[in-house]
Amino acid sequence: xxxxxxxxxxxxxxxxxxxxxxxxxxxxxxxxxxxxxxxxxxxxxxxxxxxxxxxxxxxxxxxxxxxxxxxxxxxxxxxxxxxxxxxxxxxxxxxxxxxxxxxxxxxxxxxxxxxxxxxxxxxxxxxxxxxxxxxxxxxxxxxxxxxxxxxxxxxxxxxxxxxxxxxxxxxxxxxxxxxxxxxxxxxxxxxxxxxxxxxxxxxxxxxxxxxxxxxxxxxxxxxxxxxxxxxxxxxxxxxxxxxxxxxxxxxxxxxxxxxxxxxxxxxxxxxxxxxxxxxxxxxxxxxxxxxxxxxxxxxxxxxxxxxxxxxxxxxxxxxxxxxxxxxxxxxxxxxxxxxxxxxxxxxxxxxxxxxxxxxxxxxxxxxxxxxxxxxxxxxxxxxxxxxxxxxxxxxxxxxxxxxxxxxxxxxxxxxxxxxxxxxxxxxxxxxxxxxxxxxxxxxxxxxxxxxxxxxxxxxxxxxxxxxxxxxxxxxxxxxxxxxxxxxxxxxxxxxxxxxxxxx
Length: 503
Prior knowledge:
Elements: E1 4-7, H1 10-17, E2 23-28, E3 36-44, E4 51-58, H2 64-74, H3 83-96, H4 100-118, E5 119-129, H5 134-144, E6 151-159, E7 174-181, E8 194-199, H6 209-212, E9 215-216, E10 230-235, E11 239-241, H7 261-271, E12 277-280, H8 287-294, E13 298-303, H9 306-320, H10 322-325, E14 329-331, H11 337-344, H12 354-363, E15 369-370, E16 382-387, E17 393-401, H13 407-420, E18 424-429, H14 435-442, E19 446-447, E20 456-457, E21 459-463, H15 464-468, E22 480-481
């Protein structure tokens, strides 16, 4: 199998593209219903300390998506849902009412049902969550897995030291990972992981080091503070002390909710073997797929935002090289004008800005920042920074249009440049510009500084055709990096080269 990366709604992708019983292990780290907006931190070489753009919104609403979803469950759409699952959602609807929490649980029920379908009989499922909704999610998992011959194996506690302390409650210092298998007959894959266990010297007698194959532990036990005992490798327990990614950690890429690779390594090694197929349906910045590649697993990644897709591709290129990235089978990214129009005309309000994100990030090689403000965005869909003659930061703004365009759009953009104090403006259009538009843009004049080899138009008009067919890219040296460079992996294994871009 060729490694696959899907850009789109994971429910649609799972239903349309992922075959029954084709996945050995699925790990997901979905939104937690935390009612927070998560911003991606851009690695800024220049003046501003932090530049941020919204990565995703973890706030749920009882809207048309939730209404359609609960209707699918209660009416048992295509016979997908167990009777226990239907009864549970019906009961939760009566208890919780039609609100944010129920909308979240309906969304998760739809997707977990599909994940159960695509798992092999020997497959395992790990759901990463926190105490916000973990108790409800366990009920859903029981209704889906246990009612069909599966089993709940562990509630894993990921314990860490970061985060604040409140004077009103105990410090919240853990996440929860629920571990289920599709069959309870112990036919699932489980490679028993080991961990360092400390054996203190007991008063009056010592443990026999030879029996335990133990070694003297000079540093002692961090938990109990004792010294002079032994340590040995013991079967791993369900409390995992793994530190999260601190600000200066080499793995840290600037993406919110990024998980450490050591956490994913533990899960993937325990519940899969080499060449097994691993699925991450909420792959974010790509930690799961990067670890899969290092551990010689095959993988499928899905994410609904183009920001995540662009981050994953850059991360994999940094770690394994462009030759490897060229082997990945990509789905959902526009490859021609028709597929670009399909993305632009999606009626789904959750993905309405995805066309703008794709156009700007593709044209700028993932260096621009996306403006995700709702409502009046003042005509600015993206922003980039570059150095001026004196080393000061100057601004380039981006505007994307998917509908009819006219010369008035360029005049408005000139006004926006003034308001935003921007030196350069780029107008990206799906439709071809008119002669008056081109004339108005040229009238703005030229820009050049000592860091540029040649001058450029202050107002530039770029078509989607230029981006797709002519592979045109912005030639202004922007200083914002959307993603810090990932560490390069030493061993690179490149399989059959296959590219299939569709939407």
